[in-house]
Amino acid sequence: MRRYLFIPAIVLAMAGVAGAAHASSDDLRSAAPMAGWLTIPQIADKLAAQGYDVRRIKVERRGYEVYAIDKAGRRIEAYVDPVTGNLSGAEWGEDD
């Protein structure tokens, strides 16, 4: 009987480790309430001032996801901290 209880315990422990790894990727984004977030136009203006050509901004669960063209003409997809407007987790695509 004890052997049958041991296997589910291992499975649950492994699921907890996987959940913790997934939660760490969410740490890149803010947990601040939406009332404290910058607006989409404010985010677009801030990024434009840094030289980005903003194409699209999506509201995500814990921040904004931005699609833009950087100064070098490369496509960029990044998360933006909704409180500070700072980029994090950027990925660059091919030249446009």
Overall description:
With 96 residues, the protein is an alpha+beta fold. The chain has one domain: SHC Adaptor Protein, CATH 3.30.505. The chain has 2 helices and 4 strands. Strands 1-2-3-4 form a 4-stranded antiparallel sheet, with helices on one face. The longest helix is centred in the first third of the chain and has 25 residues. It is globular, with a radius of gyration of 19 Å.
Number of DSSP helices? 2
- Using only CA atoms, what is the Rg? 19 Å
What order do the helices and strands follow? Answer: HHEEEE
CATH architectural name: 2-Layer Sandwich
* Order of strands, widest sheet: 1-2-3-4
What is the number of E strands?
4
The total tally of domains equals 1
Low-confidence stretches: 16-28
Using the coordinates shown, work out and report the CATH topology: SHC Adaptor Protein
Name the overall outline: globular
Spatial gap, N to C terminus:
62 Å
The description of the largest β-sheet is:
4 strands, antiparallel
Any idea of the CATH class? Alpha Beta
Q: Which class of secondary structure composition applies to the elements? A: alpha+beta
Helix content estimate: 25-40%
Strand content: 25-35%
| Mean of pLDDT | 76
